[in-house]
Amino acid sequence: MAAETASCRPSRANAPRYVPIAEHGLIGDLRSSALVGTNGTIDWYCCTRFDAPSVFASILDADRGGSFALAPDVPVRTKQFYFPDTNILITRFYADDGVGEVQDFMPVVDDSREADRHRLIRRVLCVRGSLPFTARVAPRFDYGRSGHSVSTRCGQTVFDSPDLSLALTSTVPVEVDGQDACCSFKLIEGETAVFALDRIGGAVEPRSCAQTEAEDLFDATVRYWRGWLSRSRYRGRWREMVHRSALTLKLLTYAPTGAIVAAPTTSLPEQIGGERNWDYRYVWVRDAAFCIYALLRLGFTDEAEAFVNFLSEKAAAPGGTEAPAGTEAPAGTGGANGTGGKDGAGGGRLQIMYGIDGRRDLPEEELTHLEGHVGSAPVRIGNDAVGQLQLDIYGALIDCLYLYDKWGQPLSSAHWDTVVDLVDWVCDNWDQPDEGVWETRGGRKKFLYSQLMCWVAIERAMRIARRRGLPADMARWAQARDTIYRRIMDRGWSARRNAFVQHEGEDVLDAAVLMMPLAKFISPTDPKWLSTLDALGEGLVSDSLVYRYDPQASPDGLRGEEGTFSICSFWYVEALARAGRLDEARLAFEKMLTYANHVGLYAEEIGRTGEQTGNFPQAFTHLALISAAFNLDRALG
Q1: Percent of residues in the chain assigned helix, strand, coil, to nearest 5
Q2: CB 186 within 8 A of CB 132
Q3: Which of 65, 470, 485, 516 gives a 20 to 30 Å CA spacing to 569?
Q4: Is 244 exposed, middle or buried (0-12, 13-18, 19+ CB in 10 A)?
Q5: What digits encode the pLDDT tens for the residues 482-509?
Q6: What is the pLDDT at residue 3?
Q7: Which residues contact residue 399 at a Cβ distance below 8 angstroms, ignoring those fewer than 6 apart?
Q8: Is 43 helix (H, G, I), strand (E, B) or coil?
């Protein structure tokens, strides 16, 4: 039995207020997720779904956000890793008198009622010597905006807020301290303590979690993740990193709908102290083809099918998103986050993003009571970029459907009707200026990447129609496709830069053009492409890390700087490999792997000194890693 100590004091007072973004691991139950710092604190958790209001958000405000701290009450060194081939996170503590660890996981269960419990388990073990531990559970509901009461019922500590109730079970005595629950206890070698935090209410009754049940749930969770990962077909050189990326992608999947969030966090800054802070807990159509490509290449057909069905349902739904003339949509994702524009050109047939339940309305709000990560305000929830026009999403979606038809299941007649509707719209609208893939605030322009992906939309649809003998206005489609090709080759090429550029009328470089050979628009060894690759290497690449563009040369309407964009760095690897520059590609890839955090996770960007910045972990980055590893493996033979 664990010995109780008399005090219930918090952890050491000299601890830093914020753990760096990269000093975290992720756990989840395919509905919600939590970030666990290397200090043993859960400082981000949204219950009951990814986009629900936070319960713990001390990563955004150390004082008002709320957290679940659990660590030895003595000076320690820490290490963190995943239990092999699972999403169970283990944080180890090394002290003068002993070694302990905390095993954090959320059981993945099929029963709908138990899934609604969203149980979060923390098993504390002393593996050598003895250690005193302190725990403090300090929920702050609704991003710290909603008060709550604390009571003790049937041996459980219950936190009641107007919209959510949580019950804490512990195998060591817990006492109430104001709005929090805390305890101090000592473990000797071989002893274990268990904490379980459950959502209760409705059909979910309070239930304790004994040590034996926690052990059984641990074993079941191991079996689930290892069983899922065993379906992977990847046997290449970078199996560990690819499988960690696959496990991360699965963690970012919302099981009830098959949607995949861009990231499980909001407002983690792209620059400490900067304003580029956005809510990524939604589904971006832009990510669709990359998701499907990665999932199908690895053999995860069920996940690919669920995501395709989600996207197809949204694409087929009536009612596009037309931004009224003169209105602005102030934020988005992918970095610069732009405005809806003032030219009155309107929006497209698709929204650029949707809620994980498919909802279209994602109103944006600033939480002024939270200081932001290390003081990086504003903190935003919701995302007004739904009002933007981004033409590239049509290519992303139809490429996704093309890949699924090729490697997964043949498209249904309803899917094809959706494709025809979208391609007809693209034929009429590809020449509009838009905000572009990076959602800048510099105003709408005729971005090369947007036109490229419109070409992809039409070209992939034509491939499907030819292979399947499906009805299509091929003559009209071919004319539009060829017109776009000539437009890019004529106006997207800068003789002065000897490179393809960001948009018509200027000579600005943009890493998005790395997709030109990846999308099979141009040969990867075409002289024009090779000179573009060289220009990008000179202008946007820093020791294998790739900037999206130069804000000084192409102002994006936002203050501050940003780091290199990790997905672009992996695109660069793939472009080098396809160009036959295999030594450069492999070195760049290996360098990128060194920027992963201690458990193989990537945020959106990498700062000047190698720190990870932006929302974390980012699905886009892990998808690009899988694609780069797969194609580099194939090129190396």
Answers
A1: 35, 20, 45
A2: yes
A3: 485
A4: buried
A5: 999 999 999 999 999 999 999 998 899 9
A6: 42
A7: 288, 289, 456, 457, 460, 519
A8: strand
Q: Is 274 helix (H, G, I), strand (E, B) or coil?
A: coil
159 residue type, one letter? F
Residue keyed to tokens 């034509």: 462
* Nearest residue to 575 (alpha-carbon basis) of 616, 539, 534, 620: 534
Q: How far apart are CA 233 and CA 241, in angstroms?
A: 14
Q: CA-to-CA distance for 512 and 194, rounded, in angstroms?
A: 48
Q: What is the DSSP letter of 1?
A: -
Say yes or no to pLDDT of 17 above 70: yes
| C-alpha span between 303 and 270 (Å, rounded) | 30
Strand duo 192-200 + 67-72: pairing: unpaired
The sign one gets for the Cα dihedral 447, 452, 453, 454 is: positive
What is the pTM for the complete model shown? 0.92
State which H helix or E strand residue 397 sits in. Answer: helix 392-407
pLDDT on residue 7: 44
Q: What is the pLDDT of residue 506?
A: 87
Tens of pLDDT along 534-584? 999 999 999 999 999 887 766 555 665 778 999 999 999 999 999 999 999
Structure tokens at 74: 């003595």
Residue 265 neighbours by CB under 8 Å, 6+ apart: 35, 44, 59, 280, 281, 615, 616
- Measure the CA–CA gap between 90 and 104, rounded to whole angstroms: 6
Tokens of 123: 């098993």
The answer for residues whose C-beta is within 8 angstroms of residue 227's C-beta and 6 or more apart is none
Give CA–CA dist 447/504, Å, rounded: 7
Q: Which amino acid is at 468?
A: R
Of 69, 72, 106, 107, the C-alpha closest to 92 is 72
What tokens does 172 get?
A: 């060591």
Question: If we measure between CA atoms, which residue out of 136, 167, 134, 135 comes closest to residue 149?
Answer: 167
Residue among 102, 72, 70 at smallest CA distance from 88: 102
CB 510 within 8 A of CB 549: yes
Amino acid at 626: I
Burial of 179 (0-12, 13-18, 19+ CB in 10 A): middle
Place of tokens 């732009």: 338
* Residue matched to tokens 């391609």: 423
- What is 411-455 written as a DSSP string? PPHHHHHHHHHHHHHHHHHTTS-B-TTTT-SS--B-BHHHHHHHH
Q: Cα(410)–Cα(401) distance, rounded to whole angstroms? A: 9
- Please report the pLDDT score of residue 441 as a whole number: 65
How far apart, in whole angstroms, are the C-alpha atoms of residue 167 and residue 151? 10
